[in-house]
Design goal:
This protein is an all-alpha fold and 276 residues long. It contains 14 helices and no strands.
Length: 276
């Protein structure tokens, strides 16, 4: 018996719905299967109470976890080891926890430029004589992202007065905000497919230079360098404004062209109607 087109359409809709439901039911299982298993460090420590298990919860809130840097990224060892003994074997590169004076070099394995800036700073020069290390400001397992928020009265006052730190932070806030705003504008243009490679590289270089000031406690140097960097950001801002104006002119020309086409169509329609 032949089925009419309407009948075939009615038949396809339930079949399609069933296929969609079956696919949706499978998706969670597929996603779960694709998630990598936790490394042996997390598996063991997360089952422990107190100081042994505490680092796992702190690490999960860290910028390291956010960027996929696990325990072995700092402490070494073999995260794929079959058990704790093999995972924490010195023969497999396990370093353990560093002594306080070794912390900057420990972090500096990855943050090479930051280590250099720290050692040249007043903080770094006080290393070993009561001065702060990386974890004093950034935390150890709950590692905080480097930002001006770390320069605050509550934390700085644990070691010294806040007056100098406040002046330094105030000198940098405007520049930091400008860098963030420029980065957002560049990303918007990138999403639109515009060529902003030169501007993006320029901002990357300026931002790295600016971040070297984060560990500097020389107030005059921070102020003077922030002013120079702000002037260079002004050039990038000017380049983006030129792109804004070009985009605005194109949009205006497009709108005029569309309006002209609609007006011409309306006139043709009226002329045709008058002949009818």
């Amino acid at each position: 018996m032949r089925t009419s087109p309407v009948g075939r359409l009615r038949l396809r809709i339930p079949i399609g719905a069933l296929l969609f439901a079956a696919l949706a039911a499978c998706l969670p299982r597929v996603t779960a299967a694709q998630e990598p298993p936790e490394i042996v460090c997390i598996q063991c420590h997360s089952r422990q109470a107190g100081k042994i298990g505490e680092p796992v919860g702190l690490w999960r809130q860290s910028v390291h976890a956010e960027n996929g840097i696990a325990c072995n990224g700092c402490h070494g060892g073999d995260p794929k080891g079959a058990d704790a003994e093999s995972a924490m074997s010195p023969a497999r590169g396990f370093l353990g926890a560093p002594k306080e004076t070794d912390i900057p070099a420990f972090c500096g394995k990855c943050h090479v430029g930051v280590l250099k800036d720290y050692l040249a700073s007043a903080h770094g020069q006080a290393l070993g004589s009561g001065g702060p290390t990386c974890v004093t400001c950034h935390g150890n397992h709950k590692v905080l992202r480097a930002s001006l928020d770390l320069i605050n009265e509550k934390d700085c006052s644990r070691c010294h007065g806040f007056d100098r730190a406040r002046i330094i932070r105030d000198a940098m806030v405007k520049t930091e905000s400008r860098i963030v705003a420029l980065d957002k504008r560049i990303q918007t243009y990138k999403d639109q497919g515009a060529d902003v490679d030169r501007i993006e590289k320029g901002l990357f270089a300026i931002r790295n230079r600016f971040h070297t000031l984060f560990h500097d406690q020389d107030v005059d140097k921070v102020w003077e360098e922030s002013v120079r960097i702000d002037a260079e950001l002004g050039k990038l801002d000017g380049a983006l404004k030129a792109m804004d104006e070009t985009q605005h002119r194109r949009k205006t020309a497009g709108a005029v062209a569309i309006a002209g086409a609609l007006l011409a169509a309306a006139l043709l329609y009226l002329i045709r109607k008058s002949y009818d």
